[in-house]
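Good morning C.,

I know you're traveling, so I'll keep this short. The sequence:
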Amino acid sequence: MNFSRVSELSIAALVLTIGGCGPGFTEPMQKSPNSIIGKTTQDVGEFKPEEKKEVSDQKLNVTNPVTGPLEAYRPMVERVVIAQIDQAVRFYEAENGKYPASYEEFMEQIIKKNNIRLPVLPGGWKYEYNVAEHKIEVVNDAPAAP
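The tokens, ready to paste straight into the viewer:
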């Protein structure tokens, strides 16, 4: 067998493998049942500052180049959700001349009336509405460290 024939076979094998005809590429990837990707919620709690929960700063704190995209997921989703809710609250204020006066009014008039579906957050992080400041907060379910 000559060198060019070996090269042609090697290239053909590489193309078939990369192209999806090799073993392991023919089965579709199965999504984990624990995955939060694509899941949405209308679960928004009421923000209570006295509970001293950790409030997200929405900063990208990437510490590992391999897992960086996973570390960036939550802060990026938070920014989009906060902008969406902020706009809905401002529209409500413009139409009614006031902000929602209570958590219940926020849930009924902003979330449910507009059928807003928020992406599920990873790692115990939750959405809560801050009535006093008229904004959504992203908090960790566990109380913040002293």
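Safe travels,
E.
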